C-alpha cells in the first residue's frame, strides 16, 4: 500500500482516523499499532512476521540491557547479539543476491541459488530498532517497558516503509503521551496534501520524461536530450522522496506525533557538504551519530578522517541498494566530500554564489547517473553521451519537441524545489491576512482535486525509495 493511492487516501486513512479519534485514550495506540501492521501486511503478508520477530527480539534485548543487575560484559554481549541479528537479517535479505552474483561473476560459475525477495522497508525499520538498542546500551534512553509502545515505534505506518528514520530518543516522550488537537490535525492534513501533490503531480509527471529518455537506444540520444533526461530524474527523485517524507510527517501530525524534517531545499545548496545536510536529513543524522562519530569523526588525524568518510560513504551507498553502482555512487560523494574538506573548503568561501551553486548542481546531477544505472556499461555510455564523447548529436528535433512539451513543468518543478514560494506566501500572509486564508483554502482544495484526478486517471505511480 502506498500513500499516493486511492485506497489509502479514501479508505484506509479515513477509517483509521475515525477509529483513532472515536475510541478512548487508552485504545489510541492499539488502533494505530493494528493499523500499522495491517498497512505493512497489505504489501508484505509474509514478511510482516519478520517485522514482528524483529520487534520482539529487540524489545527483549532492550529489556535485558535496561536491567540494573546487567553486567558490563553481558550488556556488550547483548549489543553484539542485536547487531548480528539486525545487520544479519538486512544482509541476508538485501545483499545475499549481490554476494552470490559477484562470486559467480568472479569465478565464471553458474550458481543455481534462490534469491530472497526484499522485505518492504527493512532498511528503515532495521535502523530504527538499532538506534533504540544502541541508545539503551549507551544509557541515553531507558528501556521501553511496554511491548505495545515499542511495537508501535518500530512499525508506525506513516514512516515504516520509507522513512524518515525516526530515532527512538526523538520520539520516546511522544509514544505514551502526546498532544492531540484540531490545529495539529489540520496542519498535518495540509502537509500530507502538499506531499501528495509533490508525488503525483510533479514527481510522476516529470519522471515520465526520464522514463522515455532512459528507454531510448543510446545512439538516438543527443547530448541535450541526455541532460534534459537526467535533470528530469534529478527533479523526480527529489519530489518523489521529499513528497513521501512530507506525507509521513503530515500523517504523524494527524495522530499527534512530531517527526523531524527530512529535507531542507537541498538543490539550493552551494557545496556537497551542505547538500548532504539538507538531503535525507534523518539518514545522514543516523550515520553521523552511530557510525561516523563512533569511528572518531573529524577529531582525528587527516588519514583517519579520510578513512572515516570513505567507510561512511561506502556504507551509505551500500544501504541504498544491492548493486555495485550504489557503492560507486557512495564513494563518488565520499571522494567529493574529502576533496572539499581537505582542499576546497577555504577557497570556496571566496567563490561567487552562482559559481558555487553551479558547481553543486553539476556534481549532484552527475551523481544521479551513478545512482540510476545499475548496469555499469549503460552508466558509462550515458555519461559519455552527456559530455559529447560518444559521437552523438549535440541537439536534434526530438529533444526540441520534448523540451517544448515539458517546459512549463520544468519551470514549476524548479520553482517548487526552492524556498521562493514559501517566502512569497509568508509575505502575502503578512500583508493580506484575510485574503490569504481564503487563498489557502482554495489552494488545498485544488491540490486535493487534481491529485485525486491524477490517481484516478493514471497508472504511472512509481516510488523510487521503496526498493531500499
Key phrases:
single chain; 468 residues; 0% strand
Can you describe this structure in just a few lines?
Its main location: membrane. The chain is built from 18 helices and no strands. With 468 residues, the chain is mainly alpha-helical.
H/E element sequence: HHHHHHHHHHHHHHHHHH
Give the strand content. Answer: under 5%
Mean pLDDT: 90
Overall body shape: globular
Determine the number of helices (DSSP H or I, runs of at least 4 residues).
18
Q: Percent range for helical residues?
A: over 70%
Question: Radius of gyration in whole Å, from Cα?
Answer: 23 Å
Low-confidence region ranges: none
> How many structural domains are formed by the residues?
2
Count every beta strand, where a strand is a DSSP E run of 2 or more residues. Answer: 0
Structural class: mainly alpha
Let me know the largest β-sheet. Answer: none
Compute the separation of the termini in Å.
16 Å
Give the SSE layout.
Blueprint: H1 6-22, H2 28-43, H3 48-65, H4 72-107, H5 122-138, H6 147-155, H7 168-176, H8 182-215, H9 223-254, H10 272-278, H11 281-292, H12 302-320, H13 324-348, H14 353-372, H15 376-386, H16 397-416, H17 420-431, H18 433-457
Helix pairs in contact: 1-2, 2-6, 3-4, 3-5, 3-6, 4-5, 6-7, 8-9, 8-16, 8-18, 9-14, 9-16, 11-12, 12-13, 13-14, 14-15, 17-18
Amino acid at each position: 500500500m502506498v500513500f499516493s493511492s486511492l485506497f489509502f487516501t479514501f479508505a484506509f486513512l479515513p477509517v483509521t482516523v475515525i477509529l483513532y479519534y472515536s475510541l478512548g485514550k487508552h485504545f489510541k495506540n492499539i488502533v494505530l499499532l493494528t493499523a500499522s501492521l495491517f498497512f505493512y501486511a497489505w504489501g508484505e503478508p509474509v514478511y510482516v512476521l519478520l517485522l514482528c520477530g524483529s520487534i520482539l527480539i529487540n524489545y527483549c534485548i532492550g529489556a535485558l540491557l535496561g536491567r540494573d543487575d546487567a553486567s558490563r560484559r553481558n550488556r556488550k554481549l547483548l549489543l553484539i547479539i542485536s547487531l548480528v541479528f539486525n545487520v544479519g537479517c538486512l544482509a541476508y535479505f538485501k545483499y545475499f543476491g549481490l554476494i552470490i552474483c559477484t562470486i559467480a561473476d568472479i569465478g565464471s560459475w553458474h550458481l543455481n541459488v534462490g534469491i530472497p525477495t526484499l522485505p518492504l522497508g527493512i532498511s528503515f525499520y532495521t535502523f530504527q530498532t538499532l538506534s533504540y538498542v544502541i541508545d539503551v546500551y549507551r544509557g541515553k534512553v531507558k528501556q521501553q517497558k511496554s511491548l505495545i509502545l515499542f511495537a508501535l515505534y518500530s512499525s508506525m505506518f506513516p514512516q515504516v516503509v520509507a522513512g524518515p528514520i525516526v530515532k527512538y530518543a526523538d520520539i520516546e516522550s511522544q509514544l505514551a503521551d502526546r498532544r492531540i488537537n484540531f490545529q495539529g490535525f489540520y496542519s498535518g492534513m495540509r502537509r500530507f496534501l502538499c506531499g501528495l501533490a509533490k508525488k503525483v503531480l510533479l514527481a510522476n509527471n516529470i519522471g515520465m520524461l526520464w522514463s522515455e529518455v532512459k528507454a531510448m537506444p543510446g545512439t538516438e540520444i543527443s547530448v541535450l536530450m541526455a541532460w534534459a533526461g537526467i535533470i528530469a530524474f534529478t527533479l523526480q527523485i527529489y519530489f518523489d522522496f521529499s513528497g513521501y517524507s512530507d506525507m509521513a510527517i503530515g500523517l504523524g501530525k494527524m495522530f499527534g506525533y512530531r517527526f523531524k524534517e527530512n529535507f531542507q531545499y537541498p538543490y539550493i545548496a552551494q557545496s556537497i557538504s551542505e547538500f548532504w545536510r539538507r538531503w535525507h536529513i534523518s539518514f545522514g543524522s543516523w550515520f553521523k551519530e552511530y557510525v561516523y562519530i563512533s569511528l572518531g569523526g573529524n577529531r582525528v588525524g587527516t588519514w583517519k578522517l579520510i578513512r572515516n568518510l570513505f567507510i561512511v560513504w561506502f556504507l551509505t551507498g551500500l544501504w541504498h541498494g544491492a548493486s555495485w553502482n550504489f557503492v560507486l555512487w557512495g564513494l563518488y560523494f565520499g571522494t567529493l566530500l574529502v576533496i572539499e574538506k581537505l582542499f576546497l573548503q577555504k577557497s570556496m568561501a571566496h567563490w561567487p554564489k552562482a559559481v558555487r551553486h553551479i558547481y553543486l548542481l553539476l556534481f549532484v546531477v552527475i551523481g544521479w547517473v551513478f545512482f540510476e544505472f545499475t548496469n555499469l556499461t549503460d552508466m558509462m555510455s550515458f555519461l559519455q553521451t552527456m559530455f559529447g564523447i560518444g559521437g552523438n548529436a549535440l541537439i536534434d528535433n526530438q529533444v526540441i519537441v520534448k523540451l517544448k512539451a515539458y517546459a512549463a513543468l520544468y519551470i514549476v518543478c524548479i520553482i517548487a524545489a526552492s524556498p521562493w514560494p514559501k517566502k512569497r506566501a509568508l509575505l502575502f500572509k503578512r500583508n493580506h491576512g484575510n485574503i490569504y486564508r481564503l487563498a489557502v483554502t482554495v489552494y488545498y482544495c485544488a491540490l486535493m482535486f487534481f491529485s485525486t484526478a491524477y490517481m484516478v486517471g493514471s497508472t504511472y505511480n512509481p516510488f523510487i525509495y521503496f526498493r531500499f
